[in-house]
Amino acid sequence: MSLLSVQGLGISFGGLSAVRDVSFAVNAGEIVSVIGPNGAGKTTLFNMISGVYLPKAGQVRLDGETVTGLRPDLLARRGLSRTFQNLQIFQQMSVLDNVVVGFHLHERGPVLSDLLGLPGARRRSRASTQGARELLERVGLARAAEREAGALSYGALKRLEIARALAVRPRVLLLDEPAAGCNAVETEEIDRLIAEVADSGVAILLVEHDMKLVMRLSHTIVVLDHGEKIAEGDPATVSRDPQVIEAYLGASAEVIDAHG
Amino acid sequence: MRLSSKQATLLVLAVLILVSPAFFPSNYYYRVGAMVFVNAIAVVGIAILTGYAGQISLGHAGFVGIGGYACALMPLHFGVPPLLAVVLGATLSGVIAWLVGRPILRLKGYYLAVASLGFGVLVAMVLANEGQVTGGPDGIKVPDPGARAWLTGLGLELSNAQFWYVFTGLFLLAGAWLALNLNDSATGRALRALHGSEVAARTVGVDVARAKLMAFVISAVYASVAGSLLALQNRLITPDVAGYMHSIELVTMAVLGGAGSVLGAILGAALLTLLPQVLTVLQDYEHVVLGLVMMAVMIFLPAGLLPSAQRFMRGRGE
């Protein structure tokens, strides 16, 4: 059974339908990319799946269980985690603490033991700090651990968000433009990281404008245009699909170029 | 061995409390010191709510009032020992904070400020108007907890002012210790995270509503204990302690000192408690200068006194 499946998902804002009747599925260890011109509804789709928006129609299933419209923190408990296109970093916290927070579900305990600094609370803190350092190592930010997060470059913040999302130990990971604003070297690192995470059995749903990255990584590509799915298939099939070329690679080529 | 920043903060605080009396010109300054500590306890609570979690309350003096009146009314009406009344008052404040916080913490920013202000006004009104129970606008006497007499019995002779200086100082140390523990725990990190981005905090599994409520309850307990200590020390409590001016004063102290830091909160409380005492030499201009100092701090040191000073020191160290 698919780890994440989406059926007939739709939402409208002020009477205008933003996403309509979108269905697809992601299996464990698989990378599915959602592409489409700007304004096609990719981020809206992400926000519905991750519980930020309440869908008007359709269903989201996690491992067979219906989780449509569940709060993001409850989805996190069920193993769904995400990153954001427009970064959502805890600016005032250290880089390390940003990732330690990601372990919240694994380190939380009674508030009283946190207040009293009981050995249990300290042990949990140490374990998550240790885990966070390993994740920072993995995304190449170990040396920035003690810095204030707000001081990092855009590309570094993108990787910091991935590290934080991985701290949740997700079964399903939603990555919203993880390579945006990154240079070639950073993009390559992110590329390798995503492949690694998928290999460890995580189902990955990816929105990305970097077509090279999408074509290289994806097992399946879902193409959205004007909020509707116009194609789905492996990279080779999708890139030959005339409707896709028309809607995306043709008409909006300048837009893609602008986003590198 | 290197001290952690938590240990360093507690050490600085303990040394300040111990060493300050060496510079006191008279016994009266023990009283002023105790006032600083009592305010600081409430402000550390505000630091948790506002500094960690980023939520504003303009009604926390209401909890100061509940804690204070608990020490007057519970012994009077139910024969509860005054020190037990501190605990019961704190429990009551926690329960009320939980009930009030659930609906109002859904609000954000100035909506939350106004709603919490309403709560504080409500408490102050009840305390002033229910004269038969509370003693009305003139306040009510508070019994002696008998702790000083007990210490004298053990052979430790302290003047009244000295006793309260030590007693409230110990409470402040304990309060700071708890707040620092919290800061470096799962709960504290969750609070700082939701301060930074609620949606991101949610996606890592933080139950934002519950975390905010937790901060509100904890800070209410701090305010309540401060109110109890104030009442026990003064042997009198009046409804003004629950008034909105006092609430605003507490928030001002926290923001002035540096809302995110425990030591900053204590510094802010000390500054705003001591400054009016010092400025009395200016007589008519006292409030003008006080106002100007507050404005200058916020304009030139927007992060608050302590965080700005720390940043300055780090900048020079590099």
Report on this model:
The complex is a heterodimer of chains A (about 260) and B (about 325). By secondary structure, chain A is an alpha/beta fold. Chain A has 2 domains: about 170 residues, Rossmann fold (3-Layer(aba) Sandwich); about 80 residues, no CATH class. Chain A is about 40% helix and about 25% strand. In chain A, strand 4 and strand 5 form a beta hairpin. In chain A, helix 3 crosses helix 6 and helix 3 runs parallel beside helix 7. The longest helix of chain A is centred in the middle third of the chain and has 20 residues. The radius of gyration of chain A is 19 Å and the shape is globular. In chain A, about 45% of the residues are buried. With about 325 residues, chain B is an all-alpha fold. Chain B has a single domain, classed as ABC transporter involved in vitamin B12 uptake, BtuC (Orthogonal Bundle). Chain B contains 15 helices and 2 strands. In chain B, strands 1-2 form a two-stranded antiparallel ribbon. In chain B, helix 2 packs across helix 12. The longest helix of chain B has 27 residues. The mean pLDDT of chain B is about 90. At the A-B interface, helix 2, helix 3, helix 4, helix 5 and helix 6 of A face helix 8, helix 9, helix 10 and helix 11 of B.
- Placed side by side, the strands forming the largest sheet of chain B appear as 1-2
Number of strands of chain B: 2
Q: Under the CATH scheme, which architecture of chain B would be assigned?
A: Orthogonal Bundle
| Chain-averaged pLDDT of chain B | 92
Oligomer: heterodimer
Tell me the overall shape of chain B: globular
Strand order across the biggest sheet of chain A?
Answer: 6-7-8-3-9-10
Report the biggest beta sheet of chain A as strand number plus sense, adding barrel if it closes: 6 strands, mixed
CATH class of the largest domain in chain A: Alpha Beta
At the fold tier of CATH, the topology name of the largest domain in chain A is Rossmann fold
Greatest interface (CB-CB under 8 A), with counts per chain: A-B, 40 and 29 residues
